[in-house]
């Protein structure tokens, strides 16, 4: 839903450049951020000491808006930010819910300028959290009528609504969780179960109790079926009066507004960690296989070399033995012995007197 940083980094950078410019210059810049947020920064050369900032942002709840688009509580909260520097312009520029007039000459020098411009850049976070903060401030009210137990659906992104249910002495915030990937559902379910285990421990006894269920809680009976169709279950927080006292109110509100974003960030980081470990494990296995193959090839090469050496020895021994046999077979050569062998060592021919008659 919201981002982790309250101050818009891009808006802060533009305002710092406009403030630190050595020469005044005109600017008419439109800036768009995640969540359909639009900023319009304008500065005229004819009026270099002033800059105008217009903001358009989706409201947290779908209620009846005033003529300038924001409630008195929200306007009062915005006026507390840099009261000497910022002035709310009424009516706001057409197409925007709020227009601020920034006096650049009143911004303090040095490090004070960064602090002041950072506070101005948090105006969208103030608009977003003011309505929920107003609800949580009345948590200990004893005059709660029976009709106030009906869940209040708060929508910032269409796919990420959550519910606030006012009850005696507490407020219950219920978050329907939806994920696109089945692997994200598995990681998120493990995270929710661990969150319940940690929240029930003694060391975290002061934080709002957390519970998770795969089915809708009883407080959401009667709500639209499309809003209760989830694959990640329902996460609930019970907020009591001590969680919204003093400075804790702002921290509690910001934690609730960022819960969807925090869960998605945790799931994304966990999935990336698992993938890195799998790739690292795969690389180590491949390295072991390559090392084993190298050793096997080296062993085969040694065996082949040994076979070749044995074969050479056999061939060498054969050649030596045949030569020796040849030498032994005919050690002396006598002239005329071949003629003597033809004449006297001739095999005689015998003729048989018996004759055979071929039978038909």
Automatic annotation (TrEMBL):
Pfam family of this protein, just one? P34-Arc
The answer, when asked if Zinc is one of the entry's keywords, is no
What are the subcellular locations of this protein? Cell projection; Cytoplasm, Cytoskeleton
Entry keyword annotation includes Cytoplasm = yes
Entry superkingdom: Eukaryota
| Cellular component terms per the entry's GO annotation | Arp2/3 protein complex; cell projection
Q: Which UniProt keywords apply?
A: Actin-binding, Cell projection, Cytoplasm, Cytoskeleton
| GO function terms (MF aspect) | actin filament binding; structural constituent of cytoskeleton
**Primary role:** Functions as actin-binding component of the Arp2/3 complex which is involved in regulation of actin polymerization and together with an activating nucleation-promoting factor (NPF) mediates the formation of branched actin networks. Seems to contact the mother actin filament. Arp2/3 complex plays a critical role in the control of cell morphogenesis via the modulation of cell polarity development.
The similarity comment for this entry is: Belongs to the ARPC2 family.
Describe the protein's quaternary organization and the partners it interacts with.
Component of the Arp2/3 complex.
Its name, as the record gives it, is: Arp2/3 complex 34 kDa subunit
């Amino acid at each position: 839903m919201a981002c982790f940083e309250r101050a818009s980094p891009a808006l802060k950078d533009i305002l710092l450049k406009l403030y630190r410019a050595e020469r005044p210059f005109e600017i008419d810049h439109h800036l768009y951020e995640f969540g359909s947020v639009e900023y319009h920064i304008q500065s005229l050369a004819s009026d270099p000491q002033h800059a105008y900032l217009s903001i358009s942002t989706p409201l947290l709840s779908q209620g009846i808006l005033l003529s300038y688009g924001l409630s008195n509580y929200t306007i009062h909260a915005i006026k507390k930010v840099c009261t000497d520097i910022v002035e709310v312009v009424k009516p706001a520029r057409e197409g925007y819910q709020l227009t601020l007039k920034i006096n650049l000459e009143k911004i303090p020098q040095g490090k004070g300028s960064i602090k002041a411009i950072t506070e101005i850049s948090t105006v969208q976070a103030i608009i977003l959290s003011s309505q929920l903060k107003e609800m949580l401030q009345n948590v200990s009210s004893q005059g709660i009528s029976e009709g106030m137990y009906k869940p209040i659906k708060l929508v910032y992104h269409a796919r990420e609504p959550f519910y606030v249910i006012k009850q005696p002495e507490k407020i219950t915030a219920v978050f329907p969780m939806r994920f696109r990937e089945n692997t994200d559902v598995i990681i998120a379910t493990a995270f929710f179960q661990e969150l319940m285990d940690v929240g029930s421990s003694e060391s975290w006894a002061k934080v709002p109790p957390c519970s998770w269920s795969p089915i809708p809680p009883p407080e959401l009976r009667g709500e639209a079926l499309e809003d209760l169709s989830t694959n990640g279950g329902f996460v609930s927080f019970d907020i009591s009066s001590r969680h919204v006292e003093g400075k804790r109110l702002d921290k509690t509100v910001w934690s609730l507004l960022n819960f969807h974003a925090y869960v998605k960030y945790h799931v994304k980081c966990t999935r990336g960690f698992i993938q890195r470990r799998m790739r690292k494990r795969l690389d180590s296995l491949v390295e072991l296989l390559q090392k084993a193959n190298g050793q096997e090839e080296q062993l085969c090469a040694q065996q082949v070399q040994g076979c070749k050496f044995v074969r050479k020895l056999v061939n060498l021994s054969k050649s030596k033995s045949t030569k020796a046999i040849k030498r032994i077979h005919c050690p002396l050569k006598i002239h005329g012995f071949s003629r003597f062998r033809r004449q006297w060592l001739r095999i005689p021919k015998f003729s048989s007197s018996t004759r055979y008659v071929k039978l038909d």
